[in-house]
Amino acid sequence: MKQRRGKKHSTGNFKTKSSVSYPLPIILQPSAFKIHPSDFRLQPSLFYPFFRVGIGNDVHRLVRGRKLILGGVRIPFEKGPLGHSDGDALAHAICDALLGAAALGDIGRHFPDTSRRWRNASSLLFLREVKKIIAKAGYGIVNVDATVELERPKLRPFISRIERKLAVALGIKPGQVSVKAKTGEGVDAVGLGLAVRSEAVVLLCMQQRSSEP
Ligand code: MG
Q1: Are the beta carbons of 133 and 54 closer than 8 angstroms?
Q2: Distance from the CA of 54 to the center of ligand 1, in angstroms?
Q3: How many angstroms separate the alpha carbon of residue 90 from the centre of ligand 1?
Q4: Rounded-to-integer distance, Cα 104 and Cα 97, Å
């Protein structure tokens, strides 16, 4: 969008110290967040971290003798994910998405699988810790959207419980968490019942100004 000097734009704009105004979409207008326009009379770089999106994914092999846990909920099944922790692929994908959105590394960096501390650990613990990490960096969670790919069993009866469990671990409302379930349609490792896979996308919102732009 073309920048204008010193002239109000119909979708709202903000004047910076350099006298260059930045037209913003409706959703970023101060009235939408009850933020005073003076909050934006700052360096343009401070717009950059207001919202941040992150993506994460994870896959675990399914083996006999392991509990199948997704989003902290135990799913009755004869196989479960092989992993150092409880192998909760859904929680792991969300952790990576949250850390990625804040550019703070990944789950392996914060919870290495070489550490005995995380052996058979509940991945809800990872979610709670990651929430603290991103909060410390000044970010709050707007929403989480995730998909679990699993051939069997059907996850539909467990989805609401999973969403609530994730929301509690992240300290947000259930309506801010969406979990969807798909099968592998009989193809690839998921479709053959050999693995569980998950993808997640999150949106973070800056709650306080970070010292680093
Ligand atoms: Mg994992």
Answers
A1: no
A2: 17
A3: 8
A4: 10
- pLDDT digit string, tens, across residues 29-50: 445 555 555 555 545 555 556 8
In degrees, to the nearest 5, what angle opens at C-alpha 119 toward C-alphas 117 and 122? 95
CATH class of 51-206: alpha beta
Domain boundaries, the chain: 11-47, 51-206
Whole-number Å distance, alpha carbon 175 to ligand 1 midpoint, is 25
Q: How far is the centre of ligand 1, averaged over its atoms, from the C-alpha of 50 (Å)?
A: 29
Q: Please count the other Cβ atoms lying within 10 Å of the Cβ belonging to residue 36.
A: 9
The number of C-alpha atoms within 13 Å of 36 and in the hemisphere containing its C-beta is 3
Token duo for residue 90: 């859904």
Q: Can you tell me the distance from the alpha carbon of 130 to that of 83, in angstroms, rounded to the nearest whole number? A: 19
Integer Cα distance of 210 and 213 in angstroms: 7
Distance 4 CA to ligand 1 centre (A): 48
Task: Report CA(71)–ligand 1 centroid distance (Å).
Answer: 12
pLDDT per residue as tens digits for the range 50-94: 899 999 999 999 999 999 999 999 999 999 999 999 999 999 999
Query: Exposed e or buried b for every residue in 159-193, given b needs 16+ CB within 10 A?
Result: bebbbbbbbbbbebeeebbbbebeebeeeebbeee
Backbone angles phi, psi at 19, to 5 degrees: 65, 15
Written as one letter, the residue type at 123 is S
